[in-house]
Every structure is written in C-alpha cells, then in structure tokens.
Amino acid sequence: MTRVIRMKIARQFLIFLLCKPGMVATTHESPTFYRDVRPILQMRCQECHQPGQIAPMPFLTYKQTRPWAKAIREAVLIKKMPPWFAEPGFGPFTNDRSLSKQEIQTLVAWVESGAAEGHLAEGHPKAAPAPRWEGGWNIARPDSVVEMPIAFRLPAKGDVDYQYIVVPTGFTEDKWVQMAELRPGNPAVVHHAVVYIREPGSSWLPDAKPGIPYVPPGRTARERLLNGSTTNDILMVYAPGNIPEKWAAGLAKFIKAGSDLVFQMHYTPKGHVTSDQSRVGMVFARATPGRRVITLQLGNDRFVIPPGDPNHRVEAWGALPNDATLLSFFPHMHLRGKSFEYNIIEPDNRRRTLLRVQPYNFHWQLSYRLNQPLPLKAGTKIECVAYYDNSRNNPNNPDPEEAVRFGPQSWEEMMIGFFDVAIDAHLDKQAFFGRRP
Ligand code: HEC
Fold first, then answer.
1. Model pTM score
2. Following DSSP, what letter does each residue of 371-403 receive, concatenated?
C-alpha cells in the first residue's frame, strides 16, 4: 500500500516536472519580444543582424525575428551565435559578445512559450542603443578615407594570389589614428584584408606602382607570400565578424607624414566574375597620445602537419625587446585550426595562459581585446601554441590525405599570433620591429 502511494507521488512529481515548460507558457511571466528579447538582440545580435552588416537576415523588428525563433533557440543553445570563441576564464575582454546564462534562458523561454510579441510600450525605447552605422561606418565619421583607386577584378573561380595595393595617404603631417575601419567594397569576396603602414623611404615592395594591384615575385604561392612579408606596422586587420579598431584615450596608431597604406587583400572568387574596391576610414586622435599602439606577431612557417593527424602541435615564441603593455590578441590559422593559445613564460618557466581560443573557427577570425591591458617587462617571453586537426573527423578539412605546410590559401595552413601592444610614444618602433619578439 505505502509503495503504491509512493509511486503515485513519484508519478505526480514526474507529471509536474513534465508540465513545467507548458506551465511557464501559460503564465503571464512569459518573456515578450519588446520587454525581454529586443534588448538582448540590440546588445548582442544587431551589430551583424541588420541591413548593411554581414548577417543575411535582420533582427530589428518582431516581424523580422519571429520566423527565426526556433533557429535562434538552437543557435544560442549550441553557442553557434553570437560568434565568440575564447574559452571562459580568460580575459575579461571588452569585445566579448557572448550571452550570459540568463540571456540564453530568456531567449529559450521566449521561443518555448510561443515567441510572444507583447506590447511596444513594455519596451524601453530610450535604452535602445542608437544605430551605430551612420553613413556605412561603424566608427565615428572618418576624418580621412583612403580607398583603392581602382577596383580589383576577380575571376569566377580558382585561387587568387594575395594582392598588394599601395595607396599614398597624401598626409603632409604626422597623424595619430584613434579609430580605423575597413569597409569592403564587395564583402562576399573579401576573405580578409591587412592594412599596412609603409613609411617614406621603406624598401618594401619597391616594384609596386601606386594604386595598381601587385603580386610580389616568386615561383610558388608560398614564395610570393614570403616575398611580400614585412616588418612594417599594421594599421588594422579586417575579417568578417571582427569589430573595427577603437583604441582607448591616450593610445593611437601612428602614421608618419608621407606614408602609404598598403592593402593586402585575400580574395575568394564566388562563381562569377566580379570586382572589389575597399576603403579604410580613420578618425584622428584629438590630442597627441602618450602611447603608441603597434601590432606584433609570432609566427611559424616551417611546420608539416602529417596526413590524418588529429592534434598536431605548432608553436612560436619570442621575448619582448622592450617594456610594452599588452592590449589584444588576434590568432590566425586556416581550415585545420583547432585551438590557439597565448602564454607568458615566467622566469621560472611556468606558463601563464592569457587566452585560449577553442574551438577555433576559421570562418570567424576575431580579435580578443583585454579589459585591463597587461604591462610586460622587456625580456618577457610570449609563446603561441596552435593545434591542428588534419583528420577526417574535421568536417572543414579540405583533404585529410595531405601533408600540410605553410601557405596563403585556405587549403594550406598558417600559424600567426598577432597581438597589439602599447609602447612609449617616443620609443623608436625599430626597437620592436628591428628584432621580432
Ligand atoms: C558577428 C556577427 C554576428 C553576430 C553578433 C550574431 N550573428 Fe547570427 N549570424 C551571423 C551570420 C554571418 C550568419 C549567417 C552565416 C552563419 O550561419 O554562420 C548568422 C546566422 C544566424 C542564425 C541562423 C543559424 C543557422 O543555423 O542557419 C541565427 C538563428 C542567428 N544568426 C542568431 C543570432 C542571434 C540570436 C544573435 C545574438 C544573440 C546573433 N545571431 C549574433 C552573424 C552574427
């Protein structure tokens, strides 16, 4: 008898548990679009999910969002969206766009309770971030725009060598750049772009004519890439999903009077002949900053990833030649990239990990910007460690039978850990670029 009662209670408890989601659906506590969901979309999604940005569908209005409710639930549960790949526990990062547990719960509960619209009046229209995309820029109105003078014509298919386009800035005085953004002319074909600063008198790319797309000499794509490499500073790196550069007050990139910008463009043909003409917008610092931001890199171009290897380790390290303050990271690998970490090696050889990007996702090349910049002493050893999956379990693997080496195309591999540091504005940058860290 007691057993039957216990079973009954247990059954009722079970029924209660099973009913719970349904009960949530019928209470007036169910999340609504205007009150609960729209603020999350504004903060975490509309950066990309609005016209003119990279996501294919906008999530500005209820009408636009409602048909995607089920997909939104799925995407936030498996953390496919929003794209952010730093393992928890590092940082914090100023550009961390990941959702809190609470935000995920709200979105999921909204979808599971029927994705109600609610009433516009429930929302807080004043709290909504203003559209940040005035005139097509995500930075403030640029003081200067430097554009490729002629469009580059892409073939319908095949690999396209990295193109270098030298564009004189025409600056007659030194400039300090507070914000920089690259707007691709044709986002569908711009795989990534690196914008270099070539100072007057530089011996880099002597044969390139201003404005004309140029490929450095070399028999193989690898040789052409290595012949195009440089220790010149980088203004910024563009990749889809990465946000523009906005350096904190007192920090800026330096462009000497008379410098050129060199666009290094990686194009991927999309099945028809088309063209691209990209441009960079810059906002200048209002006052001369105390510190200069430079972009350094640790890379390895001498690895071979054996066919089928599911976890191949490649590393690169160097020591800082001078005091510098670490600001941000930008790991770069291709389709076999699995994880990437930045470590500091303490004097007693202990490793301190500052960032681990895992799972690495080739389609989202992101920067990770520290909330609290980290001062480092001259001589500090920085190490980058990359892991590659060249097995058939890697769904992105172009060919698991291949031994993979360094090269510019996506079916080859790369291993570069970019990082930005701030240095004393008066320090000669050669102190860093002359000797790579
Ligand atoms: C950095 C840009 C970016 C941000 C931020 C972003 N998305 Fe996306 N989203 C995309 C792009 C690009 C696609 C289409 C390509 C893809 O699926 O990767 C996409 C696709 C999606 C899809 C379709 C997924 C599928 O499987 O087809 C959903 C759903 C989605 N996003 C929801 C969201 C939600 C919800 C947020 C905010 C919490 C968000 N996204 C934030 C860029 C972004």
1. 0.87
2. EEEEEE-TT-EEEEEEEE--STT-TT-S-TTS-
